[in-house]
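Run log, item B.
One chain of 218 residues. Sequence copied directly from the ordering sheet:
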Amino acid sequence: MRLLLVEDDPMIGKAVRQGLLNAGFTVDWAHDGAAAELALRNGVYDLAILDLGLPVKDGMALLGSVRRGGNHLPVLIATARDAVSARIAGLNAGADDYLVKPFDMDELVARVRALLRRHAGSGSSLLTTGDLVLDPLRKTVTQGGQPVALSAREFALLETLMQRPGAVLSREKLEESMYGWGEEIGSNAIEVHLHYLRKKLGSAVIVNVRGVGYRVAD
């Protein structure tokens, strides 16, 4: 899952980004509101974490323009503005959640996962397809009740596919979800990861829709 972190404080931004990376997310970091607005036009993100006190363009102004543009991306405000009036204003402007600094990193990750589940219409954190079960919290995969060892990239690829059951995702879409800014992507990286996933899970688990992309089997 690919997140956009919008935070101008370098120390906070570095710590939050690393915490989210450790939790298994792909994270891009925008340092001001204008850069974030430009990044959000790409439509590649699953969720945004938004500070309000931003240079160039304030966080509330950014949130307003995002919602007026019809973008329904889940937005979690993470800010030092702790007044009740500020919380009400942020939620009324279209934020899906509001977290006051300083916050615990585990709580931020939990709230991010809850918003992603809500956006996907699921009440459970577990992703299930047939006898295949993926637990994003514990970073485990079982098949028929037996654990399956996956690399970090293999896990991220499988999670992306299982988050969208039935949807056919192109190679480009999978790359956008798994790789952040500045990460080098091999020309056949997705195909290589899929090859090893099929070897571990069985060739029938992930379906290649020729000329379109890939999906998990029903």
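Observations after the first pass:
- The longest helix spans residues 105-120.
- The helical segments are 10-22, 33-40, 59-68, 84-92, 105-120, 152-162, 171-178, 189-201.
Flagged for discussion on Thursday.
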